[in-house]
Amino acid sequence: MTTSLPPHSEADVLRAGIAALADRLPAGWTARQPEGGTTADRRSDALLMVTAPDGTPVTLVLEVKRLVEGRDVAAIRDRLERLTQQLSDVRGVVVARYLSPPVRKRLADVGLSYVDATGNVLLNVPRPGLYVADRGADRDPWRGPGRPRGTLKGAPAAKIVRALLDYDRSWTVRGLVEVAGVSTGSAYRVIKFLESEDLVARDDSGAVTVPDWVALLRRWSDDYGFVRNNHVTRWIAPRGLSDLVKRAAGSPVRYAVTGTLAAAEWAAYAPARSAMIYAADIDQATRLWDLRAADAGANVMLAKPDSDLAFTRTLATASGLTIAAPAQVTVDLMTGPGRSPSEAEELLEWMTRNESSWRR
């Protein structure tokens, strides 16, 4: 449920959030605001009394925000923990106008319940035993026109993220612009967003660092995927993947192998049953690699990327095969088909243990 008019004030947000939660309670459950509406010392934004059909109550301590960004989650968690520790039989809940998918995930990861005015709800109350989950909007329905925020979609963002992942250093914006090959405006916009998500930090001089590259890589995978961000076609290598590897290694095609075949260079998970390959010229690749078009049973996916990022900082294997950089391979596996996400976790473990070998 999305209200037609945006909730402007925190009071509007509170009313919309309570309504969204009340609409989703199971039959026999009730919700009401107690007299006074806040804790006696008024440290909480609001309280909500939820009562089970047998009369067992639980008090929800509500933290009301018009906007919640990733960097706000830790502070909100600490505040709600302090409030709920002072009271018995209470649970903390974040109430907002709109919560983006990454913010919702971060709230859930730290054990916080939430509700927004569009109907995104997660409420987990062990006693008296209440679990409510529902999905509202995945985009802010009240965001006005202008440049999109809250996303790492698009080539400029991907180039900046790859630079931040591939190099372990303290960055000036100018240095990041030069290495990533993006405009200064794009760099500032992406850095500002990453700051809001608590994925980069800036010191007093403005230098940019990445406190947790794994978190940054996972966040990028929310907006980037091998299939959804590239033009992908499916083919059959009639003589198998070993023949394809030999043909690719000796060909003039501009390409970069990703997925399972590439990950095996660092962390072999299981024998590859299919290939994921970026190719600048699909026609040339299919001709030289003797690939056949496939409506079904394909064992090769060729992706024509929308930028040259996939071909940036590639590596050559001992057999002469060109493979994508580890960060690129990992994000492709995270969003790939079948067992690919499990393979991504194996590769992440290797990258964590061997960071100095791939992150310069």
List the defining traits of the structure above.
Trna Endonuclease, Chain: A, domain 1; 13 helices; alpha+beta; 360 residues; 36% helix; Arc Repressor Mutant, subunit A; Beta Polymerase, domain 2
Look at the structure and give the CATH class of the largest domain. Alpha Beta
DSSP summary: helix tally: 13
Kindly state the percentage of residues in helix: 25-40%
Morphology call: elongated
The CATH architecture name of the largest domain reads 2-Layer Sandwich
Q: Describe the sheet with the most strands.
A: 7 strands, mixed
Q: Kindly report how far apart the N and C termini lie.
A: 48 Å
Q: What is the averaged pLDDT score?
A: 90
CATH T-level fold name of the largest domain: Beta Polymerase, domain 2
Q: What value does the Rg take, in angstroms?
A: 24 Å
What string gives the helices and strands in order? Answer: HEEEHEHEEEHHHEEHEHEHEHEEEEHHH
Tell me the count of domains.
3
Strand order of the largest sheet: 1-2-3-4-5-6-7
Helix/sheet category: alpha+beta
Low-confidence stretches: none
Percentage of residues in DSSP E strands:
15-25%
* Beta strands, count: 16
